[in-house]
Amino acid sequence: MPVTDITKDFDARTLVITAEFAAPVERVWALYEDPRQLEQVWGPPQYPATFVDHDLRPGTRSTYYMTSPEGEKFAGYWDIAEVAAPQRFTFSDGFAHADLTPNSSLPVSANVYVLEATATGTRATYTSTFATAEGLQTVLDMGVEEGSKAAINQIDGYLAAH
């Protein structure tokens, strides 16, 4: 399984997920750059994602929704801040209403995704920082740890098949 570590630090208000992929950095980067590939692995398998807008460039907003097995849609957005292809990108990740506008009643996280070459492929470090420990707890209570792990663990299989 790609996910090798999950660390929650309430003092630092962070959730850090580390994963190892059996593919080169450029291939993993290409997955995050292409909305059609990204939607194959962004949500957990039972909550597939659909990216409405996605352009991995600073100053853009990506919008998406995940669909539950019952057909309920859960929307979100990324405000892309920095892109240093193919090693790193930063973005704010928030929840959205059905019309894809930000839902300010739920926490927003500042995210740094880093891809590093290893002898066997790529190490990815996904760091999410919240404004408050309560915000981190809110998303943990919503299942973000389990959902993220399930989503990330799909990446090796997808990359091997495509």
Automatic annotation (TrEMBL):
Residues in Activator of Hsp90 ATPase homologue 1/2-like C-terminal domain copies: 22-159
Pfam family, one: AHSA1
InterPro entries: ASHA1/2-like_C, START-like_dom_sf
Family statement: Belongs to the AHA1 family.
Name listed for the protein in its UniProt record: Uncharacterized protein YndB with AHSA1/START domain
